[in-house]
Amino acid sequence: MEHKFAITSEEKLRKLYPATHELAVQKLQTTLGVHAQEFIRRSPFLCLGTQDLNGRADVSPRGDPAGFVKILDKETLAIPDRPGNNRLDSLSNIIANPAVGLLFMIPGFDDTLRVNGVARIVVDPNLLETMTINNRVPTLAIVVHVNEVFLHCAKALRRSHIWDTDHRQDRNQMPSLIKMILDETTGAPEGEEMRKIDASLEEDYKRTMY
Domain range spanning residue 188? Predict the structure, then answer.
C-alpha cells in the first residue's frame, strides 16, 4: 500500500532539492584516471554492493592490505575473494546479476571513491597467484569492468566522525559477535562456556584469515 508521504517519481524527488552542481555531473568518468587509480592502490577496504535477479540487495565488506584490489587496466579491476562464512551471497548475486557497486575507503581520508560496473567470477591461476598472502592463494577473484567512477565528497564521513579517536566506541559495550548471533537464534550460554566459544572464534579468525 502506498504511503501518503511516499515520493514515487523522480520529478517529485527533484523538486525537493536544488539543481545538481555542474561539477558533480562532470566528475563522473567511465575509466579509471590517475587519481582514481592511486586512491584504489591506497585503499585497504571497500564495500561491494550486489543484487540478485529479484532485486534483493546485499552489501559485503572486503578488506586486505592497501593495494589488494588489482588494477588490470583503466577499465578493469580484480578483487581477491578471501575466506569468509561461505554464504556466498555476493558471488551468487554476481552470477545472477553482474551489476555491482564499489565504495573504496582509506583510513584518515574523509572522501571516498565510487565505482559501478559489471562483474564476473574468474579462477585464472596467473591472476590469483598475484594475490597470494601468507602463501595462501585466493580461491577466485571478482573481475569488474568499470562503467562509472567518481570521487564522493567528505560530508558523510565528517558527519560520522568515523576516523576521530574521540568518537570511538568501546567494543565491550555490546556482546561478542557470536553471542549476539546465538542470542537471536538458538540461545547463548553464559559464563565460562560462552567465553570458550568466543575464544574459539578468535582462534578461527587466526587460522582462516587467508
Answer: 169-208
Reported as a single tens digit per residue, the pLDDT across 129-153 is 999 999 999 999 999 999 999 999 9
Same structural domain, 183 and 146:
no
In a shared domain, residues 14 and 103:
yes
> pLDDT of 81-105, one tens digit each?
999 999 999 999 999 999 999 999 9
Burial of residue 144 (CB within 10 Å: 0-12, 13-18, 19+) is buried
Confidence of residue 4 (pLDDT cuts 50, 70, 90): confident
The pair phi, psi for residue 181, each rounded to 5°, is -65, -45
DSSP string, 56-100: -EEEEEEE-STT-SEEEETTEEEEEE----S--HHHHHHHH--EE
Question: Are the C-beta atoms of 21 and 63 separated by less than 8 Å?
Answer: no
Q: Are 144 and 119 in contact (CB under 8 A)?
A: yes
Please indicate, yes or no, whether residues 113 and 198 belong to a single structural domain of this protein: no
Q: Give the DSSP H or E segment for 142.
A: strand 140-152
Q: Is residue 191 part of a domain?
A: yes
Closest CA to 58 of 97, 13, 4, 18: 97
CATH label of the domain that carries residue 56? 2.30.110.10
